[in-house]
Amino acid sequence: MLKKIYRRLTAAFLAAAALLGPVLPVRAELSVSAPSAILIEASTGEVIYEKNATERRSPASITKIMTLLLTFEQLEAGKIKLTDDVLVSAHAAGMGGSQVYLAEGEVQSLETMIKCIVVSSGNDASVAVAEHIAGSEEAFVEKMNQRAEQLGMTDTHFEDACGLTDSDNHYSTAKDVAIMSRELITRFPEIYRYSTIWMEDITHVTRQGAVNFTLNSTNKLLKQYQYTTGLKTGSTSKAKFCVSATANKEGIDLIAVVMGAETGTDRFQDAQVMLNYGFSVSDLYIDTNQDPLPKLPVKGGVKTETELVYQGEFRYLDIEGNSLDGVEKVLELPAQADAPIRKGSAAGRAKYLLNGVEIGSMPIYYAESVEKATYRDYVKKALGFFLL
Fold this sequence. Notes:
Strand content: 25-35%
CATH class of the largest domain: Alpha Beta
Structural class: alpha+beta
CATH topology of the largest domain: Beta-lactamase
Helix content: 25-40%
Shape: globular
Oligomer: single chain
CATH superfamily of the largest domain: DD-peptidase/beta-lactamase superfamily
Number of helices: 11
Distance between the termini: 58 Å
Number of domains: 2
Radius of gyration: 26 Å
Order of helices and strands: HEEHEHEHHHHHEEHEEEHEEEEEEEEEH
CATH architecture of the largest domain: 3-Layer(aba) Sandwich
Number of strands: 18
Largest sheet: 5 strands, antiparallel
């Protein structure tokens, strides 16, 4: 309750400040120095703040977020394992820029490679993983672009798996980076096991022997901002300084994307400004929809009623300072259903209202199939009645 009161007071104070003048930064007046930025809430995808968020820019190493997403999707599909041996090719070992100095012919486990990518932004590790999954970096990049299209990343095109290229045809936007970041952290929260590592040793094993190498995180927010959970930094002379920063406070997950900052310090400062603002105004309503739904009568079916099920939980993000205690759920269902009914087809919806205004809805589906009754079914039913 105190948390909600604090948020409401904060939002009201910020709104009042906006009317009185530029005393405090709010919404579009947030003091973000980078030319392009966006802040979203992860579970709903709602945009809290944006600045030139659809402007195409070089993404540098935040490109690796897509490389990681494809890697975790392959793990989920069982096509690769964390214990896989990943062989480093001459091409991968020859990557410049940020690297973990993998040698040609060196073998590391896939999990170690993931750490190299997430913690130290290893270009060599990214390309080695891309080759392990798709056979070549070129084939993997095709998969990256296909996945970007599937996610609706309309202003993104990749040319490599690590972001080292300075090609004008390798680009993304703050909005698109937020989209792929959201997909990664919401589907694969295990990424946090790696993105929260500040420092860790790995062992290079080559023909020259075993050598320890320390991975150091490129994400300084891990030490500067207490709510940080990840995710990925990037910088080149073309892209300047970028970051997709994830943070969690009191159950709310935010993603702040900064592109084109002048310095590394600026990108982290901009991310913190957005995250602080987001946490100060955000309140999340969650309905897990565990309440039982009524059975729906069925006309003309082999069963007289059918079970219903919610599609899933409902979430709504409020940044206006409203009291979410007054959210009302209204079921919109037909009086009866006509057979045949197919499991998973739409039956109705649960509508959510805040202060009398609809804020969203959740589909309700049939939980089972019900076939249309035939003459034989009616005869059986009649016989059963007389035999009672």
